[in-house]
Amino acid sequence: QVQLVDSGGGPVQPGGSLRLSCTVSGFTLNHYAIGWFRQAPGKEREFIGAINWPGGDTYYADSVKGRFTISRSVPENTVYLHMDSLRPEDTAVYYCATDSRGSRVIEGSPSLSYWGQGAQVTVSS
User: Fold this and answer.
1) Contact 105, 24 (CB under 8 A)
2) d(Cα 37, Cα 109) in Å, to the nearest integer?
3) Percent of the chain whose pLDDT exceeds 90
4) Please, which pLDDT band fits residue 45 given cuts at 50, 70 and 90?
5) How do residues 55-103 score in pLDDT, each as one tens digit?
6) Which of 31, 63, 69, 87 is disulfide-compatible with 82, CB 3.0–4.6 A?
7) Quick one: pLDDT at residue 28?
8) Are 98 and 77 in contact (CB under 8 A)?
9) pLDDT over 80 at 22, yes or no
10) Among residues 2, 36, 42, 4, which one has the least CA distance to residue 23?
11) E strand or H helix at 97
12) CA–CA gap between residue 54 and residue 47 (Å, rounded)
């Protein structure tokens, strides 16, 4: 079974940085993508960005370009979301996700097939 485990959340002060990790197992397709999403209280789930496999090309939502960076460790099947210059409005539960159709991940579909459990990020002073 496909499983995603995301981790690395926690409290951080405004202007600080945080790195989330997402380790994927049970996914055997040669070409796919891993996406990052977040959901703040009372708001809809928001697409952050994605990285494809095996090429490593990245895609970002306009709202986070220049502050968030997606990277990967191929041997460890792990994708990272590095967040810089964090703001209180970045407070949310962050999820990684994937799907058998990589194009759905890249386009930020909210109905992907596989999701991590979520990592809480709280930005406050």
Assistant:
1) no
2) 10
3) 87
4) very high
5) 999 999 998 889 999 999 988 999 999 999 999 999 999 999 999 999 9
6) 69
7) 74
8) no
9) yes
10) 4
11) strand 92-98
12) 21
Residue 7 structure tokens: 């981790």
Report CA-CA distances (Å) from 3 to 6, 35, 42.
10, 14, 27
The reply to whether omega before 54 is within 30° of 0 (cis) is yes
Angle at 72 between CA 12 and CA 36, to 5 degrees: 55
Both tokens of 1, joined, read: 């079974």
CA pseudo-torsion sign 72, 4, 101, 91: negative
Of 90, 92, 58, 52, nearest to 74 by C-alpha is 52
98-116 average pLDDT score: 95
Residue among 26, 30, 21, 22 nearest 3 (CA): 26
89 phi, psi to nearest 5 deg = -70, -10
d(C-alpha 67, C-alpha 15), whole Å: 10
The tokens for 74 are 């191929």
Q: Classify residue 50 by burial, with Cβ atoms within 10 Å: 0-12, 13-18, 19+.
A: buried
Both tokens assigned to 90:
């970045």
